Structure formats: C-alpha cells, structure tokens
C-alpha cells in the first residue's frame, strides 16, 4: 500500500508540476520580446521561460514514465507513447501524450535553431499554445483531483490568465504582423 501511495504521489506531483511549469513558460514566452519589457529584465524573463519549459517537459516525461510502473493501474509503454491507444480515459490520456510531443518538438527545435533557421523555429514555437490547452483539458479530464474545489480553482485561474495573456499579446503585436 505504501508503494502505491508513493508512486501515485509522484505521478500526481509530476503531472501538476508539468502543467504549472508549462503555464509559466507559455505566459513568460508570450511577452519576452515585447517592446514594453525593459531590456535588462528580458534576459531574466527569457531564462525563466526556457528553464520552466525544460522542467515542464522533464516533469511530463516523469509523469508518463512512472505511470508505467504504477502498481495500481500500470500503463504499458505503448499506451504512454501512442496517443489514444489506451482504453483507460482514451481521449484525456491521448491529449496528454500529444502535449508531451508538442513540448518535445519545441525543445528540440530550440536546440537546433541554427540548423533549422529562425522561420521554422518560430513556427514550431507556436505549439505551446495548443499544448497548454491540451494539458489543461488533460488535467481536467484525467486528473484524479479534478473534482476538488482547489483543482477547479487552479484550472480556472490559470486558464483565465492564459486567455488574458493571449488576448493582450494579440492586441500588442506590431501592426506589420497583423495581416
């Protein structure tokens, strides 16, 4: 029983950490290059954006990996790697796997920026927006604590802030990009 509680605790903590780190990374990244960010603060914002993105990805990988060794309801490796393969919460689990692949693509593209070019990198860097929404849905649909008031409030607040960030960014972007 203690092994189950420990494993389940890691699964929940890793999933929640991944979600919150993705939220912070997306919000910071959205405004990192805005003209109203003071240049001396930009480096701190960009560094925090990058680190929260990497740690969000790592916690997401930990979340899925520990699900394969859970003694209560273990997933097969294929069910963690192939979206919508599992019979257990198929859609919710599939959304989480798609999120992970999107985040992985963003991180890999950042590492390969010089090889793939800024245009491709920028295009791939739009993936965190749908990835965040998929992770939000994944948490709401599959999270074991999603029915708690605290979890509902967290999802409502972070989801609301995300919408505000997107709306503000769209309103503040340069006119040359608004075609």
Automatic annotation (TrEMBL):
<feature type="transmembrane region" description="Helical">
    <location>
        <begin position="149"/>
        <end position="168"/>
    </location>
</feature>
<dbReference type="InterPro" id="IPR013130">
    <property type="entry name" value="Fe3_Rdtase_TM_dom"/>
</dbReference>
<dbReference type="GO" id="GO:0016020">
    <property type="term" value="C:membrane"/>
</dbReference>
<feature type="transmembrane region" description="Helical">
    <location>
        <begin position="89"/>
        <end position="106"/>
    </location>
</feature>
<protein>
    <submittedName>
        <fullName>Ferric reductase-like transmembrane domain-containing protein</fullName>
    </submittedName>
</protein>
<feature type="transmembrane region" description="Helical">
    <location>
        <begin position="126"/>
        <end position="143"/>
    </location>
</feature>
<feature type="transmembrane region" description="Helical">
    <location>
        <begin position="6"/>
        <end position="31"/>
    </location>
</feature>
<feature type="transmembrane region" description="Helical">
    <location>
        <begin position="51"/>
        <end position="69"/>
    </location>
</feature>
<feature type="domain" description="Ferric oxidoreductase">
    <location>
        <begin position="15"/>
        <end position="135"/>
    </location>
</feature>
<keyword id="KW-1133">Transmembrane helix</keyword>
<keyword id="KW-0472">Membrane</keyword>
<dbReference type="Pfam" id="PF01794">
    <property type="entry name" value="Ferric_reduct"/>
</dbReference>
<keyword id="KW-0812">Transmembrane</keyword>
């Amino acid at each position: 029983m203690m092994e189950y509680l420990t494993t389940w605790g890691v699964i929940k903590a890793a999933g929640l950490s991944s979600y919150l780190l993705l939220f912070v990374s997306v919000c910071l990244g959205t405004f990192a290059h805005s003209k109203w960010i003071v240049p001396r603060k930009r480096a701190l914002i960009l560094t925090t954006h990058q680190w929260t993105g990497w740690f969000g990805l790592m916690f997401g990988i930990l979340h899925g990996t520990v699900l394969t060794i859970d003694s209560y309801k273990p997933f097969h490796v294929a069910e963690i790697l192939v979206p919508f393969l599992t019979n257990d919460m198929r859609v919710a689990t599939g959304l989480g796997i798609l999120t992970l692949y999107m985040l992985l693509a963003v991180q890999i593209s950042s590492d390969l920026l010089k090889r793939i070019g800024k245009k491709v990198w920028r295009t791939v860097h739009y993936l965190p927006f749908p990835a965040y929404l998929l992770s939000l849905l994944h948490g709401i649909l599959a999270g074991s604590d999603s029915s708690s008031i605290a979890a509902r409030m967290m999802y409502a607040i972070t989801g609301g802030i995300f919408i505000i960030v997107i709306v503000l960014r769209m309103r503040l972007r340069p006119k040359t990009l608004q075609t």
